Amino acid sequence: MALKKALVLAVLLLTAGMATAAEESRIYVIKKGDTLWGISERFIKDPFYWPNLWATNPYIRNPHFIYPGQKLRIFPDRIEFVTAETEPAQIVEPAPEVEAPPVVRESITVKAFGGDGYIDSLVSSVGTLVDATDNRIMMGTGDRVFVELTDPGRVAPGDRFTLFHLGERVRHPQTNEYIGYLVSDLGTIQISEIHPQVASAQIIEAHREILRGALLRPYQPPRREVELKEAVAPLAGTLIGSTEKNLALGQNMVAYIDLGSEDGLEAGNLMIISRPRKATEIARQNRGPWAESLELPEIVLGAGVVIETRSRTASLLIVKSVDAINRGDRVHAEMR
């Protein structure tokens, strides 16, 4: 009996020790120039963890800039803000600031995928894929095809073209105005031989299924990686569509927004995705018509990285979602 009690006690002590070790934390004191994405990358190896932090602290106006002296509790798998009620843990003071040489931040890159597509109001083609060497309906990498060119005299064997599909016209979810056409990149072909009416070509890369009728435009190498960067100006816009017309979007999906290069948006800019928070039914009953004017913190849904810009639109890769994201939700980027 005594042995059994000793074993139970040992197990309890071991379990308690494991729980304590699992919850070990330290306090990091924020210094000038720190960003939440940089801290997330440094301590928990996930630069896109911070939307989880912001979602539980909606009073933070700008989630990727915080103020010096603020304290964060760093766990192996998460980050929490230190409040007056929390017990202090081991403090990890920031390195002392030096004037020279300047501090160089490690770059954070995001992998982009081919075939993400975009929305644009000006879309033109230089040819059409008209047939293949066999009767298959869908074509892919390695297949040989025939294309009809609008100006074959300016094309030579070895030239490459991007294949794309021209989709429907897109309306803005709020204003209902036409924004442009939904364009889906399909892959890349390389011309092998010029014939009197058509040219022979080979599909050297396919992002998705390719059908007869696919259009050609001058070749543009697909973006493989995007380096994360801060916006040069505060920007606010709307999520206007997605690649697959999903009703609800989530992590690793691509969406389109009504901001572009003319607004100062650049590939690599980090965008916060949110939704206005409406007053509850009880609040409306208590406050009457004044409840509609009650300003509440927005619901944070996630974050995305701009992977391609057009003049008035951009493609956004959703890198973190803490709730379902829908067409019409807000996007914004803020500068310090």
From TrEMBL:
Enumerate the UniProt keywords alphabetically.
Answer: Signal
Looking up InterPro entries in the UniProt record yields: Bact_Kbp, LysM, LysM_dom_sf
Pfam families under this entry?
LysM (PF01476)
**Highest taxon listed in the record's lineage:** Bacteria
Secretion signal, residue range per the UniProt entry: 1-21
Q: Where is the LysM domain?
A: 26-74
This chain belongs to the protein called LysM domain-containing protein
